[in-house]
Amino acid sequence: MRLPIVRRSHIRFDASCSDHHLRWLYIPIFSFSTPITIQYLMFCVSFVLLNALRFLSVTSMILCIVSSWVVIALSFEDFGFYFFTAFNHLFLSLEAVILIASEFGIPYKLFAEFLPLLGPKSSLATLGLLQLISGFCVLGDLHHELIDPDCAGNPHFWKLLLATGTLLLTVSLFNLVASLSYRSKMRGTLRLERDQGAVALRSQRQKEKRIMEISPPLYAV
């Protein structure tokens, strides 16, 4: 008995899928029906690099959440409750949670309608700027009394702040540079290419074909 053959197109990411909250589950890496060209290889390389950058972004924001709550806990233990310090780090951790959710596009409707600058049709410029600000906020805690081992009781706490802030600044710069590199409307947004991979190349070729069919040649009378 022969088993049925499942075509690649049946499990391919579909941008028009009605279940927008499940779109993140359909993440193809390569498209076997696309001819291998230099442009195709560039799309594959960019797909891998962009998803590696997404992994670093999520990691940096998780470290931001951890460091923020450690500052709140140690500050409350050694110096008592101070509203503005607690609110500052609470807001920073909530911002990190929102940025992590935006990297996966969950929930889709929230980012598509209410936070379009972090939505699927936006670049990574807003994400990079928010990470840059978060990195400065984390590094700003290095002057705090908590880094003193006599007060905090942990001589290695400053290393967590330094590593988190440095990683946030580095990832934010990479996101800003990537946003400047993906400004072509023909290629689509950076998030689209990062999620769809080589399928975005097929969409680009279809757009070019439609433009050539609609636009008349220059030599036409």
TrEMBL record:
Keywords: Membrane, Transmembrane, Transmembrane helix. InterPro entries: DUF7598. It comes from the Eukaryota. Residues 47-180 form the DUF7598 domain. Pfam families: DUF7598. The keyword Transmembrane helix applies. The chain crosses the membrane at residues 24-48, 55-75, 81-101, 162-182. Coiled coil: none annotated. This is DUF7598 domain-containing protein. It comes from Saitoella complicata (strain BCRC 22490 / CBS 7301 / JCM 7358 / NBRC 10748 / NRRL Y-17804).
